[in-house]
Write a structure and sequence with these properties.
Largest sheet: 4 strands, antiparallel
Helix content: 25-40%
Strand order of the largest sheet: 1-2-3-4
Distance between the termini: 45 Å
Number of domains: 2
Strand content: 15-25%
Number of helices: 6
Shape: globular
Number of strands: 6
Structural class: alpha+beta
Oligomer: single chain
Radius of gyration: 17 Å
Amino acid sequence: MEMTGLRELSAAMSAIGVDMQSFIHKAGVAEFYCIYSLREDPNLLTLTSRGDSPVFLKLEVHDFKISTFLGPKYKELQHALFGMGNSGRRLEPSEFFAELNRAIPKQAGVRSVPSTTEILQHRHDMEERDRPYFLRFETRGKGPSARNKSKTAALIGADALAFSIKTNQSSIWSDVAPNR
């Protein structure tokens, strides 16, 4: 499905020189914390529902298009949107994503760039989510794992990922803030 809202947001992001934006999307009885990232290849749109049992969706964005196939996430999203006793309401993924597309902000802002802590809080696919502080690059074992590369790209950016791959070093993270 083409996400014209992401195309407009991406242009607005480029205009102010940022590569990540966060926004809130309300649908059904759920509220989602959304992050659109140009730092990763392919670009990513993630949605994390707020509440006791968060649902996490990670959508790859190829030329501003996403797949509406939810697979095993269908039931989780249905429960998030309509509640556990969803009265047999059926989730129509194309309608959900069309509504999301219309709700995507058209303007980007520096204040909407999520912090490292916010990214880790809402990106359930990240390793070591309890370690938001970058320490250094270091050679470990066979080099950076796929999950380490993903965290490096999402939190530090493409240049850091390229350095990590070129030098075969992992990014090392801490749960203790550096003294500044």
